[in-house]
Amino acid sequence: MNKLFKVTAVAGALALALTGCTPSKQAESNQQASEQVKTATQTQALTAKDADAFLSRVEKEIQTLNVEGARAEWIYQNFITEDTAALSSAAGKRSTEAGVKYAMEAAKFDGVEVAPAQRRKLEVLKQALVIPAPQDSAKTEELANLAAEMGSMYGKGTYTTKAGEELSLVAMSSKMATSRDYDELLELWQGWRTVSPAMKPLYERQAELGNEGAQALGYADVGAMWRSKYDMPADEFAKELDRLWGQVKPLYDDLHCYVRAELGEHYGEDKVPQDQPIPAHLLGNMWAQQWGNIYDLVAPENADPGYDVTEQLAKHNYDEIQMVKGAETFFTSLGFEPLPETFWTRSLFTKPADRDVMCHASAWSMDGADDIRIKMCIQKTGEEFATIHHELGHNFYQRAYKNQPVFFQGSANDGFHEAIGDTIALSVTPKYLKEIGLIDAVPDESKDIGLLMKMALDKVAFIPFGLLVDQWRWKVFSGEVTPENYNQAWWELREKYQGVSAPVARPADAFDPGAKYHVPANTPYSRYFLAHIQQFEFHRALCEISGNTDAIHRCSIYNNKDAGEKLNKMLEMGMSQPWQQAYKVVTGNEQMDATAILDYFAPLHTWLKDQNKGRQCGF
After folding, report:
1. Sign of the dihedral through C-alpha 505, 511, 512, 515
2. Is 390 labelled as part of a ligand binding site?
3. Which pTM value belongs to this model?
4. Low-confidence residues in the chain, pLDDT < 70
C-alpha cells in the first residue's frame, strides 16, 4: 500500500482493467470521452495562482481519503466478511470518485504556465489512479463492488481434493513446493484454477468501465495510460522493457535448458519433452513464476553449501517475530531508524485460525507518516525470510519520503518500491549469515554455483513472467485480445517468454490469468520486472560505494553506513523528481542496465553453458 490514492490499492488494489467495447458502445464512449476531455482542457483563463489553490485544497482532501481508505481496506483484508467488503467498497467508491474528479480538474491546467514542481503535481494527479472510473456515480459504485467481489473470491478461494481435503491457497502452495508426485501436482494446479472462472464476467465488465474512464482522460487505452507513467513516452517505455529483456534472455535460455533436462530425467521425457515448453505444474510454484522450490531436483553436484536457511531458522528457534526483527536489523545497520512500536502492535504476522484473511504479503502506510505495517501469514522458511526483507523495504521507503508533499509520497517509479527490499536481501550472503550467527562457517567459492543456482531459480526465472503479465493486459486493454481469447492469449505469451505450458488442455471457460492475485486485484505488474532489473544494479552500485572487494554475488553491505546514506538519499526523494534522477543518485546513470544481472550470475552462466553442451535448447 504505497500509492498516492489508496483507491489504487483499496478493494483489492482497485486498478481497473479494460477490454474492447462493442462498436455501438465504443462510439458512445468515444463521444462522451471527447466531451469530457474538451471540458477538462478548457483553461477559462485559469492562472498559476488557481493551480496553487487547487493543489493546496486537494492535498488536504487526499490525506483524509488515504487514511479512511487504508483503514477500511486493512479491516477488510484482515476480517473478510460481507460487511467489511461493503465498507471497503464504499471507501473505494469515495476515493475513486475523488480521484477521477481531481484528474479531470488537473487536466484543466494543461495550458496554464506553472512552476515545474506544480506541473509535476498536476501530472501526478492526472495519473494517480491506475485506471480511472467513469464520471458517473452509479458506474463508480459498480466498479468498486466488482473489485471487492473479485478480491473476496480470491481471498476465500479453496479447493477440495479428490481425497476430500479442503485446502486454501497457502496450503496448496506449500504442497506444490515439496511434492514430487506428478499427479498430485497436476491436481493441485488444476484445483486452484477452479476458483478463477467465475471472475471472468466480472473482469470483463470491470474492464469495460475502466476503459470508459481512461478514455475520458484522453488515453487511447489503459495500457497506454500505464506506460505513460515512467517519465518517458509510452512507446519508448515498452521498447525499454524489450531492450532489458534482451540483455537477460541468453542467461534465462541456458537456465531453462538445464532445468528442463533435469526435470526430464526425474519425471521422464514422456512427461517433460526436451523440445517443448516445461509443464507449468512441475516448477514448484503455483504459477511457475519462481522455481526455487525445485532446487533439490536441479542442484549441481557437490554444491551443497552445508546449510539451509529454513533449517537454520528452526535450529536457532526463530519464530515469526524474530524473522521480522532480523530483517529490521539489516536496515538499522545501514543507519535507518528502527521501526516504530506501533508496527509491532498493529501488523499481522501469522494467519488467524478463526477467520478469513488476505494472506498475500503486503506493506502498508496507513497515514503517510509513521503508522507503517506489514500483513503476512508468515511461514518459517528461507523464502519467507527474504520476503520479509522485501516488505520492510516498502516500509522503510514509505517512511523515508514521509516529509515530501503527499503528491510525491511514492516510488520514483513503481519498480523502485519493489526493488529496495530485494536489494537488501541480496546482501543476505553466507558472510552475513555467519556474522549474525545463523551459520558457523562461510562456504568456499566452490559452493557458489549451488548458491547462485538457487538464487537464479527465483530471480532469473521470474523475469519473463514479470514481463508477460502486463504484455497480456496491454493486449486486452487495446482490444487485440478479446474475452473469448483471454486464456489462449495468456498461454501463448507464457510459452513465448517463459517456455512454460499448461500441463493439460484448458477448458473453453477457463480464466487462468485470474488465478494470479495481481490480475483480479488489477495491480500493474511491470513494476516487478523493473524491480528484478533494478535490484541487481542497485546492489552492484552500493557494493562499489561500500568499498567491496568481493565478487558481486559475495558482497554484503550490512553495517556499511556509506551505502546506507546514499540509499536513504535516493529514498527520501520519493517521486519528487523524474525517476532517472533518483536512479542516478545510487547508480550514477539515468538508464537501467541489466548487465548487473549478468555480472552477478557470471560463474553460474559459464557452468550452465558447459552443462548444456550437446543438448537441444530452446522452446
Report:
1. negative
2. yes
3. 0.83
4. 1-44
